[in-house]
Description:
By secondary structure, the protein is mainly alpha-helical.
Amino acid sequence: MEFRPLTALSIHLESLIKGRLWLKVIIGLLLGAVVGILLNPSTGLVSERFGSWIAHWLELPGQIFMRLIQMVMIPLIFASIISGIVSNTSDNLKTFGLRLFLYFIFTTTVAIIIGLSVTLIMKPGKYVLSLGGFPSSGEEEILPTEQTTLIDNVPTAISNLIPNNPLESILMGEMLGVVIFTIIIGIAITQLSDETANPIIRFTEAIQKICMIVVSWAMKLVPHAVFGLIAALLSRIGISIFLGLGYYMGVVLIGLLILMSFYLLLVLFVGKQNPFKFLQAIREPQLLAFSTASSAAVMPVSMKTANENLKVSSHISDFVIPIGATINMDGTALFQCVTTLFMAQAYGVELSIINLVLITATVVAASIGTPAIPGGGVIILASVLQSAGIPIDGLIVIIGIDRILGMFRTIVNVTGDLTACLVFDRFYGTSTETKVITTELQPAVNTK
């Protein structure tokens, strides 16, 4: 059974990289900040009603972009995972899949531990609490019954991993259920004869092409989306509150930097590669990840980079990257952990060791099902906060600045997927060539 790899569809995104989409995003970010400050009622230049009306229109490109990505995300991931499974019919698929899942759990746990550590040390929420905290601060308490419920529901949660109604999981956006259903279907397809399976494979390939065309359309809106979302944010909350949240944003970025360093250690000691050459080789998917804040949209470029620059076997990258873009959300997990503790500190909620352990377990489970789209981390964060008994009122402020943080954590997510490719290619790769990272085979990004 032959399947045209998703890397062949990267042509739809390469023009965006060559057009320096990331630079356009930064310009949009800065211009949006200026326009947002000018539209803020505190400046006295416009009325509050007019500023609010303009803000709604400024958000329109961002809303269209996110809905387009969300619309094609599930069919794209469905087709990509089946592609990886069908192209990887070796006998070690069972062992490979299990070890990959355990590896993702390990790296996610490390990310959460990093998030816990930096937040407990730097205490960004205490700073907000000293300024008065969020509304309703300290009114809600963590209930012991909620802690017991989390523990008691573990067997139920495990059994619920297999969806009894895949269509419902798709409609509800339950990504973990969609992934497991897709893996089961993909493995079943490998048991079919070529004559029966080929039409299904051709249909899945067509779905990939259609989704990537839609994604390429959505990408053209990215600079305008960033401009509008930032302008709308600052027109509502004001520059003083935005700067007040700078400490919290700094904590998240420090945590992401430490997590990135952890990946580079894996590249050095497990992948046996030079970390600096590794970073140079993966700069194109990183720049696209920064621009789009969607690891799902970057999949074709990530797979092409893994094959051509990192010399990873295609049957490894075809399997690891689609699944990693769906369940390996280490940067998002770190963000969710930092934000949960930040919100607890800002509301004056004291968390015990048991609370922290439960939050860790909840974030691990929640990050696996986080949609690989802009804002996906915040969507899942509400359930994490509720499970810990922390008020979710302040999430509206987090949603406002999430676009900025999302660009950085998506870089980390994509780097984590490519690191996983390098690590598993060392043990499961079929190529007999020396695994030397090179950038000569891939045109460099024009940085002039």
